[in-house]
Amino acid sequence: MLIDTHAHLNFRAYDKDRDEVVKRCQSKPMKVINVGAQLETSKKAVELANHHDNLYATVGLHPLHVFDEIFSVKDYESLINDKVVAIGETGLDYWWFKHLQEPYKIVLLHGWGGSKEERFFIWLDKELTKLGHQVIRFNQPDTDNPNQAAWLKETGKQVGYVNAKTLLVGFSLGGATILRFLETLDEDARVGGVFLLGAPADPLGYVELADFFKTDFNWGQIKSVCPNFYIYSSDNDEVVPPAHGKILSEKLNAKLKVVKGAWHFNVEELPDVLSDIKNTISQSEKELPTIEEVIKKQKALFLDHVKLAKINQLPLMLHARNGPSTSLGTGLEGKNVYLEMLEILKEEKVERAVFHCYGGDLATAKEITASGYFIGIDGPVTFTKKSEELQKIVREIPLEKILIETDCPYLAPEPHRGERNEPVYVEFVAQKIADLKGLSKEEVIERTWQNAKNLFKL
After folding, report:
1. Residue 375 and residue 263 share a domain
2. Three-class SS of 86-98
3. Residue 328: is its pLDDT beyond 50?
4. Which residues form a coiled coil (predicted)?
5. What is the pLDDT of residues 166-202, one digit of tens each?
6. pLDDT single digits (tens) 74-130
7. How far is the C-alpha of 430 from the C-alpha of 435, rounded, in Å?
8. Over 70: is that where the pLDDT of 330 sits?
9. 141: preceding bond cis by omega (within 30 degrees)
């Protein structure tokens, strides 16, 4: 039996076609374990498991979210039923700390018929760069005939990874593009602030803009990834009347600022916007936790998950990620998060656990498996570059301690690398493991199924 032991069909990446993805799993046939990362996604995982015989669930708070919600043992325990097969994903993640060291990233998006050379963009770039921030401004493709898919693709490419130190400034259609971009982000994403200048709330009667407004905005999803919105309208704007700003301010629970005489923001400077960006950054700096605070919180909640698992006689679905090699000055140099977690597991006498999406070294992998725990192998093992260490690990650790997983929608294996991942692609992981170990794919699928049955008591 084929099984994907770590998936996220409970994430919003599948909201439009989740039923079709589940049907593809059923046609194999195969089993899938959907993993919770917060309370809401844990609820969704359990709901899916309750409705589909081939789906199971885990419940837990991901270490990247330890400051995003108050962990209530009672709330998570209330979700546990016969279809919940593990607690997590939980653990320690030190990779995130590299973003605390980076400058703020402020992205400027122009509008229909515009360019990165908008006058106030040039001024804003200069002022923010002087303060030590990273400013990104770029030209959208075919600016006179804007296409939503093309603009979103370019935006994603230019913006890259988003976090609380990412701010987005959108002028006119650039503002609508930002709202559509926020709709594409998953539950793990957070943006520090969004600033919309003369942004339309509907197509304004222009056919060229209809593509951006063919569906309503998902306001709930948009607000879930950004806590701070700033809306600006010009009192004499005939292109995007102030009424649009009022609509956006109501939908986004944001204050509307009306700028006098700025006619569709055809101005040299916008002091209010600069001031609001600086204030947002200043407030963010006060709210961002220190590395020490994050580590302390992650370890405390990891222990809470361990206790929850032991009380309910369930295994742990573990997330571990070492800090970046460039973590100078953070105190994380040389730290091995896998060994730190392994020590905690031994101290707490945890019997069953899997280190999902393993990213450590061979020596640590051998120590983990020798201690009786499993290692999850994902799409990166199929990559042709930068996967040598992981492939070596797969060759040398016993198949009896390996689970196959996708971590979908992330980390799609070859030949689907770069696409949205889904559970049926776990077969490519099985094939690669078979190639590395000189076995048949069928042997790997059967052995990893038995491993999953043993760990999760399926």
Report:
1. no
2. EEEEEEEECHHHH
3. no
4. none
5. 999 999 999 999 999 999 998 878 999 999 999 999 9
6. 999 999 999 999 999 999 998 877 777 789 999 999 999 999 999 999 999 999 999
7. 9
8. no
9. no
Co-location of 281 and 236 in the same domain? yes
Distance CA 391, CA 279 (A): 48
Tokens at 443, concatenated: 């042997």
Query: What's 147's domain CATH number?
Result: 3.40.50.1820
R_g over Cα of the chain = 24
CA distance 164 to 184: 17
Same domain, 202 and 272: yes
Q: Where is the domain boundary, 238, 272, 287?
A: 287
For the CA atoms of 180, 186, 191, 196, what is the dihedral angle to 10 degrees?
10
Q: What is the pLDDT of residues 36-63, one digit of tens each?
A: 999 999 999 999 999 999 999 999 999 9
Supply the pTM of this predicted model: 0.89
The label of the residue with tokens 């559970």 reads 423
Same domain, 227 and 348: no
Distances (CA, A) of 161 to 190, 191, 428: 10, 10, 27
**Same domain, yes or no, for 80 and 106?**
no
Written as six digits, the tokens of 20 are 């079709």
Structural domain for 391, as ranges: 2-93+291-456
Q: Provide DSSP, 53-110.
A: TTEEEEE---GGGTTTS---HHHHHTT--TTEEEEEEEEEE-GGGHHHHSPPEEEEE-
